[in-house]
Design a protein that fits this description.
The structure is a single chain. This protein is an all-alpha fold. It has one domain (5-77). Helices cover 67% and strands 0% of the residues. The chain has helices spanning 5-17, 23-40, 50-62, 67-77. Helix 1 (5-17) packs antiparallel against helix 2, helix 1 packs across helix 3 and helix 1 crosses helix 4 (67-77). The longest helix has 18 residues, at 23-40. It is globular, with a radius of gyration of 12 Å.
Length: 82
């Protein structure tokens, strides 16, 4: 189903972030799930960039971000690994 770590992280971000019950908490949980998953798997995110991250997480939660956009955002936000 998910071939790469980016695709798996993307899936983690989409599911809880799209639930309306406590959307702010769900958005934070979705972002943290993606961040932790990538970090544990050797692909940590760079330092937080609220001007970039918050709008993207909001777009993901609203269902307005495509899979390609989410993957591109995550790729751009991953620290270079050695």
């Amino acid at each position: 189903m998910f071939r790469t770590r980016i695709e798996k992280a993307r899936g983690l971000g989409r599911a809880p972030g799209a639930q309306p019950s406590t959307s702010d908490g769900n958005k934070r949980s979705a972002f943290l799930a993606m961040e932790r998953f990538l970090a544990v798997n050797g692909r940590p995110l760079l330092d937080a960039e609220p001007d970039v991250d918050v709008p993207m997480v909001e777009r993901i939660a609203a269902g307005d971000a495509t899979s390609a956009e989410i993957a591109g955002w995550l790729e751009a936000r991953i620290a270079a690994t050695r």
